[in-house]
Write a structure and sequence with these properties.
The complex is a heterodimer of chains A (335) and B (291). Chain A is mainly alpha-helical. Chain A has 13 helices and 2 strands, in the order H-H-H-H-E-E-H-H-H-H-H-H-H-H-H. Chain A folds into 2 domains: 2-63, no CATH class; 70-327, MetI-like (MetI-like fold, Orthogonal Bundle). Chain A has helices spanning 2-13, 20-28, 32-63, 65-71, 91-122, 125-140, 143-170, 185-209, 213-221, 226-255, 258-263, 281-288, 295-327; strands spanning 81-82, 87-88. The longest helix of chain A has 33 residues, at 295-327. Chain A starts with a helix and ends in an 8-residue tail after the last helix. Chain B is mainly alpha-helical. Chain B is flat, with a radius of gyration of 25 Å. Classes of the chains: A mainly alpha (335), B mainly alpha (291). Chains A and B meet through helix 1, helix 3, helix 5, helix 6 and helix 7 of A and helix 1, helix 3, helix 4, helix 5 and helix 6 of B.
Chain lengths: 335, 291
């Protein structure tokens, strides 16, 4: 609001005597046209972000119209996946996505909050930056490299050490039956957990730092221990933002493709065992898209993509609103 | 009275123990988080460094069964696709960021753009891949470097928009006032003063977006598609480093696994260098020279 008005009022006060500067400026001509077109160009680019979202929604809807018309909403409740006979349903993939994402959250949320608490409240100042940098490095590793590592390290590790223990201890629940191949829903959940940890922990850190220091000081002044201070003064205040961070992590987990495709075993079956191979919505697209020979097959895969798009948009929008609600107006105290 | 006192003592012991217990848990979780990082890196270094050689950077892939060969075409292909993506993503992203920071302050439209950019950031990359596939590949009936570049470019836009906006907001207001006070047109003030002052931050934002999409495989699967030979044109399927790593990782041959590790090491070194550089520049204070 200010700068334009200020410049115009400043030039008005000088307008009685015609200064050489004014003559020079008048000679340069008006910048109104240039200014307007510049703003217009910038606005156009800003609007292109809407355009991208609309373009994705439009393209996916158009390209999946064949399967949208044939199966309707029932597509998401059918468990048939038979490319040969053109009979498609997305239930196994929705199941796989939900199970792996849930496992990933189960593993990563406590760890992420622990790390965030340690970095913001306990860690000596000297390590703070380097530790948060290390967790951010985890986020910079590409999905395909995680997948590569998982194939050669995580899968043997799960097969030989983790899964036998789980079968022995928790076999009675029926969740760990079947063959122990090393790959499967559980391994996919573990690799997803590693991948979504950095985003959850960095956002949790951000909302925890947005909690005013006076809150901490007030609780400490009442004689609280450090943990009580963190629990009452910090976590209590930041809880909505932490929920937002977790949901954002969920959004990442839902759409994560390559690493999951490489370890989940790729089988369109719903199984009650976490050790069984499965498929997620993203992994079935990555794995079968190039094999999709006929239009119906392709359109069914694109419809899964459309569903994934809609779900992630809703999840992300919700999470962003929660994080914004907490960090908005907070003083800028980022480490 | 003394009963109360004893209760207080017990309570305080419980609280102290609880405090130490939770501190222990936090330390433990930090260790558990750093462990996979160390595990991934050390294994990658161990496997990748032993497979890296000169041929990796200069030779084409060889057919299964022959030893040797490299990923030269994938490295060039990645550079081409990333270059195309940057051509699309960087100007649009920066311009959108300029709008948000300079012209859209406090407007509903700007808030909506900002929100949409954040949401777009969370859309899975494979979804970008299939939308670009539907737009370009289905229409032209063949895979191409263009399509790969478009997918990556779209992914870069939201990140660059948000960092550009943040960086422009850190430029002190009086620098802009000084420029406008000289009678410089508004657009000129933004281009030559605001953007220039914030340029270290904006460049690091671009590198961050670049590093993020450099490792993306999913959006390239059905757009750039991959290629065993030297790139011949932008209208042809083109190889890319992450794609080749994926293909080799899921293949059953040891030679190809070795190449996959070497490729992953090269990719990660590229990404780490840019991320560390970003960290270095931002920690030094983006506007040190300016303010």
């Amino acid at each position: 609001m200010t700068s334009d008005q200020e410049t115009s009022s400043a030039s008005e006060s000088n307008s009685e005597q015609i200064s050489p500067i004014r003559i020079y400026l008048a000679g340069r001509g008006s910048s109104a046209t240039a200014d307007k077109s510049f703003v217009g160009l910038m606005l156009l680019c800003a609007l292109s972000i809407f355009a991208i979202v609309l373009f994705i929604a439009y393209q996916l809807t158009i390209s999946s119209s064949l399967s949208l018309h044939k199966f309707g909403v029932g597509f998401f409740f059918r468990s048939a996946w038979d490319p040969v006979n053109g009979n498609f349903g997305a239930l196994p993939f929705i199941f796989g996505t939900l199970v792996t994402s849930f496992l990933a959250l189960l593993i990563s949320v406590p760890l992420a909050i622990g790390v965030a608490v340690f970095i913001t409240e306990m860690c000596p100042q000297a390590f703070r930056t380097s530790l948060s940098f290390l967790t951010e490095l985890l986020a910079a590793i590409p999905s395909v490299v995680y997948g590569l590592w998982a194939i050669f390290v995580l899968i043997p590790l799960m097969r030989d050490y983790v899964n036998p223990v789980l079968i022995h201890l928790l076999g009675w629940t029926g969740l760990f039956g079947g063959y122990n191949l090393g790959l499967g829903l559980l391994t996919a959940g573990v690799i997803l957990a590693i991948m979504i940890l950095p985003i959850i922990s960095s956002l949790t850190r951000e909302v925890m730092m947005a909690v005013p220091h006076s809150q901490r000081e007030a609780v400490l002044a009442l004689g609280a221990t450090r943990w009580e201070m963190i629990r009452i003064g910090v976590l209590q205040n930041a809880r909505i933002g932490i929920v937002g961070a977790v949901i954002l992590g969920l959004g990442r987990a839902l759409g994560e493709t390559m690493a999951v495709t490489m370890v989940i075993g790729n089988s369109p079956k719903i199984s009650h065992s976490l050790l069984a191979p499965g498929h997620t919505m993203a992994s079935v697209i990555a794995n079968e898209f190039s094999e999709a020979s006929d239009d119906m097959y392709l359109s069914a895969l694109i419809e899964i993509g459309l569903a994934l798009f809609i779900v992630t948009v809703i999840v992300n929008a919700f999470a962003r609103l929660l994080v914004w609600a907490v960090t908005r107006g907070a003083p800028d105290r980022a480490a | 009275m003394s009963e109360d006192f004893k209760g207080g003592r017990l309570n305080s012991i419980v609280r102290t123990v609880e405090n130490h217990f939770v501190t222990g848990l936090a330390v433990l979780s930090t260790v558990l988080v750093v462990a996979p990082l160390v595990a991934v890196f050390s294994y990658l270094l161990y496997k990748g460094a032993s497979s890296l050689n000169w041929a990796f950077f200069t030779k084409l892939p060889v057919p299964v069964g022959e030893t040797g060969g490299g990923m030269a075409n994938s490295i060039i292909g990645s550079a081409v696709v990333l270059g195309l993506g940057s051509l699309l993503g960087i100007p649009v992203g920066i311009a959108a960021g300029v709008y948000l920071a300079e012209f859209g302050r406090g407007r509903v439209l700007a808030n909506m753009v900002r929100f949409t950019a954040d949401v777009l950031n969370g859309v899975p990359s494979i979804v970008m891949g299939i939308s670009v596939y539907a737009l370009i590949v289905l229409r032209e009936k063949h895979f191409s470097a263009y399509a790969g570049g478009a997918a990556l470019g779209i992914m870069m836009v939201p990140t660059i928009t948000r960092t550009t906006e943040e960086m422009l907001l850190t430029v002190p207001h009086n620098i802009r006032e000084a420029a406008l006070g000289l009678g410089v047109p508004n657009w000129r003030a933004v281009c030559s003063v605001m953007l220039r002052t914030a340029s270290p931050g904006i460049i690091t934002g671009c590198m961050l977006a670049f590093a993020r999409v450099a490792g993306e495989t999913a959006p390239l699967l059905f757009t750039a598609f991959g290629n065993e030979f030297w790139p011949t044109g932008l209208n042809q399927p083109i190889a890319a480093l992450p794609l080749q790593i994926y293909t080799y990782a899921i293949s059953p041959y040891d030679d190809q696994h070795r190449l996959a590790w070497a490729g992953a090491l090269v990719l990660i070194v590229l990404i780490m260098v840019s991320v560390t550089l970003v960290r270095y520049v931002t920690s030094r204070g983006v506007l040190k020279g300016a303010s």
